[in-house]
Amino acid sequence: QIGKKRRIDTTFKMAHESTQYNQELLKELENKFKSRFGDDASVISYAPGRVEVLGNHTDYNEGFVLSAAINTGTFFLISASKEEKVVLRSENKNDEITFDTAELLEEAKSGQVKASKDHDWSNYVKGVLIEILKLLNGNRPQSGVGFNALFAGDLQLGLGLSSSAALEVSSTMAIASFYGLKLEEKQMAKIGQKSEHTYVGVKCGLLDQISSIYGKKANLVKTDFRTLEVENVPLHPDICFLICNTKVSHSLVTSEYNERRESCEAAASFFKGKKENVTHLRDVNSEELAQHKKDMKEKHHMRAAHVIGENERVLAGKQFLKDGNLSKFGELMFDSHNSSIHSFENSCKELDQIVSIAKSTPEVLGARLSGGGFGGAALVLIHMKDKDTVAKKLEESYQKAFGTSVEIAVIVPSDGATLIKS
Questions:
Q1: Between the N and C ends of the chain, which has fewer C-beta atoms within 10 Å?
Q2: Lowest mean pLDDT among 14-23, 95-104, 321-330, 411-420
Q3: SS3 for 30-63, per residue?
Q4: 287 burial via Cβ count (<10 Å: 0-12, 13-18, 19+)
Q5: Beta-carbon neighbour count of residue 299 at 10 Å?
Q6: Distance CA 295, CA 273 (A)
């Protein structure tokens, strides 16, 4: 697989720290593109993965999140096709699929979803393409509808770093540019979200796409998911994260993600009858939740407690970062994980062990699970100078506890998606 050796930074050095993206991998993909399709890519885009720092499962509750675009991501390369078809190749999967353009246009017009079962990886891009064809409203672009495309990245799967959103954003940016369609950033994010809802079957929020688009080096991205107001919150440049892969597999489609969302919606519906102007859990605070605990279903109260607490932690965390109080910010990360264990129940013993080890390590500022949960990875906040010491402690202690290794990579807050060539 392309980039396989680059996916885990076993020496705990920053991946391609001097540039926004992995230029060695890009060159490799350009060569593979020409070898497969016979010409150079005319459009190349790149979108990074993201890490959720604070604000777990708050995006679809119209709440607040602190996240970051990271230093690994996905490239998407396109050139025009002489035939009326779209050829889509995944280098990471070593697989490709071909679509007839007439069938794609009909699918966009009719709204009938035809997701692939044999090439399920292609549904993320097909959903994006259908949404863009809808925006063209039957107007054929000068370049024609058909194109050849290849994508690959250096994001490791299963870590909660949102390789899916990196693919959605990079493909949206590249396909729109290829068709001569100008899109605003938030419009691109919504196209990625619609693709995932419709063609993949995951009711995701906009966190992943917005983080990938609005990232900034040495900054977190603070998003208000009611207004979609986005701002960058500076993070000291010597701060980084360790992402710790438990190798406990998870899939949002088959996990309990949708159940958690439904419970949150049910809790919000409960409060509509108790308080004016409530549409989402964003509109309820901890005191109000406590007042009505006895009247709510236990699970609904638990899920709501997590989301409401996370919103409050994000707002407090933003202020701590502005004040330069990293210690207090780190405490909020530990509190967040505790809530995942007891209220949202989206942690697991492996994640809990990593956070426990981190909490007992003096150099660690904070730690919590990151992403949807139910396995995947934990995030550890540290100073860059301490990365080797902390990583070694985590590795040794985890090995002792479970008899298996934990994979660790350095995550650096980085710039967002970009069009490299158009």
A1: N
A2: 14-23
A3: HHHHHHHHCCCCCEEEEEEEEEEEECCCCHHHCC
A4: exposed
A5: 15
A6: 12
Report which secondary-structure segment, H or E, holds 66. Answer: strand 64-80
- CA angle, 212 as apex, 123 and 349 as ends, to 5°? 80
Interatomic CA distance for residues 420 and 26, integer angstroms: 10
Please report the pLDDT score of residue 14 as a whole number: 38
Q: How many CB atoms lie within 10 A of CB 360?
A: 10
Q: What stretch of H or E contains 367?
A: strand 366-370
pTM: 0.88
pLDDT band with cut points at 50, 70 and 90 for residue 158: low
Using alpha carbons, select from 242, 253, 212, 263 the residue that is nearest to residue 60: 263
Provide the strand spans (E) within 246-348. Answer: none
Q: Residue 410: beta bridge partners?
A: 242
Q: Which two tokens stand for residue 296?
A: 């709510």
Rounded Cα distance between 12 and 20, Å, is 18
According to DSSP, the residues that pair with 370 across neighbouring strands are: 377
Q: For residue 208, give the nearest of 199, 330, 217, 197 by alpha carbon.
A: 197
Distances (CA, A) of 139 to 67, 134, 181, 194, 211: 37, 9, 11, 21, 31
Q: Name the residue among 174, 251, 172, 247 with its Cα closest to residue 210.
A: 172
Closest CA to 101 of 87, 113, 116: 87
Helix, strand and coil content of the chain, in percent to the nearest 5, comes to 45, 20, 35
Q: Which residues are catalytic?
A: 208
How many CB atoms are closer than 10 A to CB 320? 17
Candidates 106, 206, 213, 339; CA nearest to 352 is: 339
